[in-house]
Amino acid sequence: MKIYKQETVQHVNASLEECWSFFSSPKNLQKITPKEMGFQITDFDDKNMYPGQIIQYKVTPLLGISLSWMTEITQVKDHSYFIDEQRFGPYSFWHHKHFFEATPTGTKMTDVVHYGLPLGFLGRIMNTLVVQNKLKSIFEHRRVVIDKMFNSK
To answer: InterPro entries per the record (predicted)?
Structure first.
């Protein structure tokens, strides 16, 4: 299986505490996900992130096809990072690291996603034609929303 990597970095004009408070709450995921993804949390214990937490949702990434997705928060270091991993869903492999670092003017946020797709050769073609660009557009949407929420003050 081919593993792909996507990394994004964004500066937020907010304190580390403010960023951590927002991003460590799974209920805020919907606010930063494009509406056309049809993102909806279907099961969640309404707590801030902790290791072992399971979050289930539905997404509609392409052609109106709804998919179930389950992730587990596998690691959390308060005000520093958390990691989510897919347990069931559209990817063969999904490992997403979220890093938060205080800077003199706010917070540097870094996301590193490693992912793999099913279907071998067909999955590699789908990544080139669709998936990598879709992930880039999701993170670009997130960047715009976060800029409006935190950097337009």
So the answer is: START-like_dom_sf
